[in-house]
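Re: beginner question about structure tokens

> Can someone show what the tokenized structure looks like for a real chain? I only ever see the sequence side.

Sure, here's an example I had lying around. Input first:
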Amino acid sequence: MQNILTRFAGSSIVELAQRHGTPFFLYDQQIIEQRVAELKQFDAIRYAQKACSNLAILALMRKLGVVVDAVSAGEIERALRAGYRPAGDPPGIVFTADLFDADAVEAIRTHRIPVNVGSPDMIAQLGKFFPGAQVTLRINPGFGHGHSRKTNTGGEWSKHGIWHEQLEECLKLGHEAGVNIHGLHMHIGSGTDFEHLSQVCDSMVRAARRMGPQLEVISAGGGLPIPYRKNQARIDLNAYFQLWDKARKEVEHIVGHPVRLEVEPGRYLVAESCALVVQIRSIKKTGNNSFYLVDAGFDTLVRPSMYGSYHEISICPADGREITSAHDVVVAGPLCESGDVFTQEEGGVVVTRKLPEAKVGDYLVLHDSGAYGAAMSSNYNTRRLATEILGSNGQAEVIRERQTYDHILQFERIPEKLR
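And the corresponding structure tokens:
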């Protein structure tokens, strides 16, 4: 029957669970390789590592010829440790943010990291600690789009990007600060809609006309969607590229020379590569509702609680038995929070899901957990971060060990007067 899964990434889910315990994230390397190959039409694929920043995943991206975006000093450090270097054309690392904190200033100055600035203030600041820096401007075109209000990154209510009317002001600031503004970047939110995308492309062409010949690179940003539901269609990547390529050609005509076209996916490259495997620890009835209670909550995968996001769910029988019946259940976690529910919609509305009849001890699989899964996990309720495993050709390697309590508590101190 549907929603039964026993293997993923070429490995037995039961065997991995018995060996490593649950919960764990299991990545399929071949899926990541396939997603990268699908975007090779672009001149550069710049991975938005905030989606999943494990060092092994970053090293795989580097091996596949993908460059990387960093949004913090910590992500710069991750990229460096994975073998990336900021030099090159395109540069191996670019820092994108709407402000510089102290750690970012130090990392950018030390490693000479190119910057994609999201606020005018950053331009003058950059000129003081890194004169001569390579700079792109992240432009807010005045509108946005996203699958949730929390993922809309354009328009006047968004904190992201430089307001489109300030472009000339920023070019002047760049000249005064002695930095090289050579690129434009636009990203209006996750969940690409072709009507909105066409508007973004038009906005990019208009901005290029105002910027002139110093423009050398344009970035389509990210937001490429994946089909979280079985009945959803995949994005037409050829149509997506053609829209941006048409805009790039118009820009090249305006500025009079070739322009590099980058794309900046995060979710698209990693979401479908990963399954979060948890164990059912309790099954109970509450009124008319049945609950599968599992050993991971929004500390491990926060997307359903934060966005009302949907993940397909499968059952893996621990004893290998056949299951022929299904019923409506709520899937929830162990946290001391009413919102710790995996089957909910935006606004916190709890819903049921038709799933196979399971037993305590069976395993439950949350699909498409590679983007903003492990990357957004936390130690809430003093729970340990989950194991991460990379599977390839039937071989499974641990790429992050499960935390110990010593790891969680190592930097906390009890003052002498409280002892």
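Each token stands for a local structural state, so reading them left to right follows the chain. The chain has a mean pLDDT of 94.
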